[in-house]
Structure formats: structure tokens, C-alpha cells
Amino acid sequence: MLEIKNLKATINEKLILKGLDLNIKPGEVHAIMGPNGSGKSTLANVLSGKNGYEIEGKISFNGIDLNDLKIEERAQKGIFLAFQYPLEIPGVNTNNFLRTSLNSVRKARGEKELDTLTFLKLIKEKAKELNIDEKFLSRQLNVGFSGGEKKKNEILQMKLLEPKLSILDETDSGLDIDALRIVADGVNSYKNKENAFLIITHYQRLLDYIKPDFIHVLSAGKIIKTGNADLGEQLEKTGYVNLS
Amino acid sequence: MKQNYDFDIEKIKNLSQKEKVSRKKNLDLFYESGFPSKQVEDWKFTDLKLILNKNFDNISNEVNFESSKEFKAIESFEHNFIFLTNGKIISTNFDHEEKNKILIKDFNQEEEVKNIDPSNALALLNTALSSGGFSLEITKDYKLKKPLVVYNCFSQDLKNKILNNKNSIKLNEGSELTLVDYSDNNTQSNFIKNTVDNVSLDKNSVLKNILIQNSKNNGHFYKYIKSSLEGGSSYESYILSSGLKLNKIEIEINLNKDNSSCSIYSALNLLDDQHQEIKTRINHNSPNCKSYQKIKNVLNDKSKGIYQGKIFVEKIAQKTDAYQLSKALIVSDNAEFDAKPELEIYADDVKCSHGSTSGSIDSDAVHYLMTRGISKKEAIKLLINGFLSEVLEKITNSELKIFLEKILERQINGH
Q: What number of other Cβ atoms are within 10 A of residue B402's Cβ?
């Protein structure tokens, strides 16, 4: 599904990713762990198409060169990034945003856009699954939401847009145990043979709930080690320092 | 430039000799200065003389038109209406109300709107050339059950014409009215509309005045609203305006007695080379009055927006509570926004605050929305809508609110 070959990314003349290779197939859950500054979030940003990066190397998503796709086209083709710090957008009503987003994606897929009533029914169902109070949906997007509410809102968007590849950038940070469980359940219930996940995290914690097929250790812009779920527990004991 | 004007008082019907003489005097006063240029402080950001010279070869007044009996009525909410063509009453309908509680007639040509600043050249011209308008009065304690929509339509034959109208709205003690002043038709001709509205609110009356300028045309509009408020009365004004080549709305509110209050909310989305100015003057003439202003402008393309707002507090107007905020979102590098907030305070126990900010679209927010499959263009529209729709928050009539949200959305989409 996702093939990354020798990816280099530079921002403000600083080389952050220094030749990264990664292959993700449908149905797989990959985790990327690594110390601060290793390039984890840069990878997420580059995949989402954030401006400002100079890119070398190849990223292909289901056979399409990602560099040829605009930010919104990546989302429409099925790449979803759950932000580490979801933005507060004053004035923009959450429901209105969610409907515009869903309909943009549906339109691009050649599906019929949903009218307000059908949409509201759908969003209420999805919100309930994540234990999100309906009143959040009529508030301004993320404005005054707690950290946990913002993260839940990201997962809600994921479930709504039904992406093929979901990238979760430090989704566990700022979550208490209950919220963590809800978020993990949300991810697990969406997981199937067709879609894949790339989970970026500092800690083993989230991986106790969402079991990865592969764990990669990113250090100084390169993947230096790949293993199975046991690698996470090992890292938790030994830290990253002893790997290099 | 005088040679370019062809202003003839004789064209106006049913004027007494005395009235003609008085109008001639006003016209002469107007000729002394002509249309104001930027040298006039009140027009420093809107050089009307220059703009008119650029867009008009000659200007004449005209009062006889082909008027259509048809107009496209609003279907979103039940309402009463006054239908105007070129400012003159064509028909009215108050089927939702007790008819004897509402007095509606043509504006009395002999009646004068008092105390208009003699340095206001357009007001002088209006007095000289006014072909009337409507005069509305609501009797004591009558609260209209449905909003009143004033439909402003224009005929097609207005090239190089100036329309001058005067309207009067009087709410007697304890009465209530929601008035939607609605312009939504697209005449192609290049014309000027110069309107003076006189609003008089008696004790404890409530007026909600919603101005919707929704036509996309070559109109050059100036509207002067002068209102006087008695004790406990309230004047709430909303302005949604987009699409005119030039639009200047000047609102003067006189808080004459205790506990009267006013608010002005405006949401303006300007496109192309549109030029729009909101100018306000709030006179706190009595203690314990409140005024609130929130002016929001979005400037696209080569548009220009202006807000000049003055709060004046008389020495006796203690415990005044006045608030004024202007926020502009500048979307294009070629757009311009000017703000001139002013406070003039002679009382010593008052709460007055004002602020003015302008900024650009938050690129991180655009990015976030785009990662959700929304195109850049749509993302910017969502943000603009978020920015402007805030001014509608206080509207309690939900049907009306939904209607206004739709209007705003349409204006953001470029009509």
C-alpha cells in the first residue's frame, strides 16, 4: 500500500529524514518509535503533504507517486493523519466541518454527497461509539476541547472518512487511561484486512492496546531496527540509547 | 465638475412653491462643495468625487420609471413586506398583523429630517432631490408578530441616474419591530442611490434592523441612518453587505435618555474591486446607556474596506458602557482595510473599550482542513464563514438566523 524508498526530507536547510525505507501492506499495523528529534513527526508531515519540506526519494501509495498529489487529494485517496496537536479553529462549527470534509472525500470517490439529515444521523452514531458527547459536535472545532477530547475528535474523523492508511501521530500523548482505551478501541474496531495503520509514538503504552505487526525504531532520520511487537517491550526496558 | 450634473427639482412631482424654494437652497449649498472628496475628513478613505468621476459621464436625477410589480419573495420565513421600486412604495402587505396598529404611507415630502449635519453634502443633496420613500409608524405597545421585509428593487433604466430617498421609521412606546432591509436584484446599469433613514424609538421600544445588501451590480450606494432613542429603548442593527461597487453606510445613533442601548454587528465579505465603508457615530447623551459594535470585514481580491467609528460621551452621560471592535481578515495582497476608531469622552465614570485588528488567513488552519480532503479554496471559505458568522450569534429568531447564515454563505461564495 505504502512504499517509501530512500526518503530524505529537509526543512529550513536542515536534513531531518536521511534515507528512510518503509513498506506497509494492507491489514498491517506498523509502529514507529524513537527518541525526540529523530524525525517521527516529520515523517507524518511529509506523508500528509505539509508545505515547506524539500523531498528526495520515492513515496508511492497504491502505485501513485505521492509527490504528485495535493494535500487534499492525499486525504481523498485515503491517507489520514491524526494530528499530535489538533488545531483549534474558532468560528468553524465542528459538524459543518465534518460534513464538508466527508462530502469532499465522497465527491472525490465518485460517491453521492450526504444531505444534512443523513449526515447528522451518521455522525451521531460514530460519536456515540467513541463516547463523544453530541454537544461537542455543535461547538467550534476543537475550541476549548480538552486534550483527550481533541484526540477523540481526530479518531472520529478517521472513522468518518474511512481511510486506507491512518497515521496516528502521538495520539496517546495527553490521554488519560480511559480516553486511551476509548481511542484504542476506536482504532481496533476500524482495523480490517483492507486498511493499514502507522502509529507514531514515544511509548509502549498505546501499543499495549493496539497490537502492532511491526515496530520500527527511528533514530537520526533513519530506521535503525525493525522487529515484532516484542521490540516495544524491550525498548521500554533498555531505552533507545543502547540500540545504536 | 458642476457641468456634469443635471439636477432638476422640477422633475419632482407635487411640491409646493415653498418646498421648491427650500430645496433649491439645499441644492445650492450642495453645489458649493459638490460630491465630497478625500479632503473632507468624513470621506478621507472614500474619495467619492474621484470614484464618481471615474465611473459616470454625467449624473441626473429622475423620478419617473417603469416599475415592475413582480419581485422574488423570501420563502424561508413568514413575513410582512413593503415592496419598493427605486425607493417608492409599490405595494405593502401586513396580513400577519392587526392592521390598525401599523401606519404606512408615502414619506411626506414636506417633512424634514431634523438636525442633519449641514456639512454632509449628500444629505443636502438628498433633501434637495428626494423623491420620497416610505413612512412607517407602529402604535404604542404593538409588537409585530412577524418580521417586516422591505424589498428594494430597481428598474433597468438607471444608467447615470441618482436616486434620492427618505424613509421614516417610528416606534411608539413599548412597540417592537424586526425590519429586514433587503436588496437583491441585479440591474446592470451604473447608478447612485442616496438614502436617508430617520429612525425614532420611543420609550421601551425595540427595533431590530437587518440590512442585507445582496445584489451584485454597479450600484454606488450611500445610506445615512439617523436614529434617536428614548429611555429603555433598544436598537439592534445587523449588516450583511456584499456585491456593490461602492457602498457607504453611515449610522448615527443618539442615546438620548437613560437605559437606552444600541448594537451594530456587521459581517462584510468584499470581492473584486468592491469598496465598502461603515461609518458610525454613537452619541451617549444620557447616563446609563450601552452601545456595542462589532464590525467584521473580509477583504478579497482588490477590494477595499473601511470602518470609521466614533463614540462620543457627553459630560452628563455617566455610567456609559461602550464597546467597539473591528476585525479584518485580509485574504489578498491587493486588498486594503482602513480603520479609524475614535473615542471622545467628557464624562469621568464610564467604561469604554475599543480595538481594531487585521490579519491574514491562518495557514496552519488551512493545512489542517486540507488534510481532511477539503480543497484550499473551500478551506478558506470555511474559515471566512467561521470568522464572519460569529456576528449572527445573538439572533434569537431561528428561522431568520438560518436565512441570514445562508445569505452569508452565498455572499462568501461570490453570490
A: 14
For residue B1, pLDDT over 60 is answered with: no
Q: Which of residues 62-91 of A touch B (CB under 8 A)?
A: 70-72, 74-76, 80-81, 83, 86-87, 89-91
Does A104 reach chain B within 8 Å, measured CB to CB? yes
- Split at pLDDT 50, 70, 90, the class of B115 is low
Q: What are the DSSP E strand ranges found in B12-79? A: 59-61
Q: Domain boundaries in chain B?
A: 2-361
Per DSSP, helices labelled H in B272-362 are: none
Per-residue pLDDT at B375: 96
Name the residue facing B374 among A80, A100, A140 (closest C-beta): A100
3-state secondary structure B79-124: CEEEEEECCEEEEEECCCCCHHHEEEEECCCCCCCCCCCCCCHHHH
Mean pLDDT, chain A, integer: 91
Q: Of how many residues is chain B composed? A: 415
Q: What are A198's strand-pairing partners?
A: A30, A167
Question: Which secondary structure element, helix H or strand E, spans residue B250, and what is its range?
Answer: strand B244-255
Domain annotation for chain A: domains and CATH numbers: 2-88+147-243 (3.40.50.300)
Give the 3-state secondary structure of residue B30: helix
Residue A95 confidence (pLDDT) above 60: yes
What residues of B are in contact with residue A102 (Cβ under 8 Å)? 373
DSSP secondary-structure letter at B146? S
What is the sign of the dihedral through the CA atoms of B240, B249, B37 and B310?
negative
Q: What is the pLDDT of residues B235-251, one digit of tens each?
A: 999 999 988 899 999 99
**The pLDDT value given to residue B3:** 45
Q: How many CB pairs below 8 Å do chains A and B form together? A: 76
DSSP class of A87: P
- Whether residue A83 and residue B368 make contact (CB cut-off 8 A), yes or no, is yes
Residue of B180, B107, B173, B105 whose CA lies nearest to B143? B173
Nearest CB among B362, B378, B386 relative to A104 is that of B378
Q: What mean pLDDT comes out for the span B394-408?
A: 93
Find the residue in A nearest to B383 (Cα).
Answer: A92
What ipTM was predicted for this assembly?
0.94
In this prediction, residue A126 carries a pLDDT of: 93
Mark yes or no for CB contact A51/B367 under 8 Å.
Answer: yes
Closest-approach residue (CA) in chain A for B373: A72
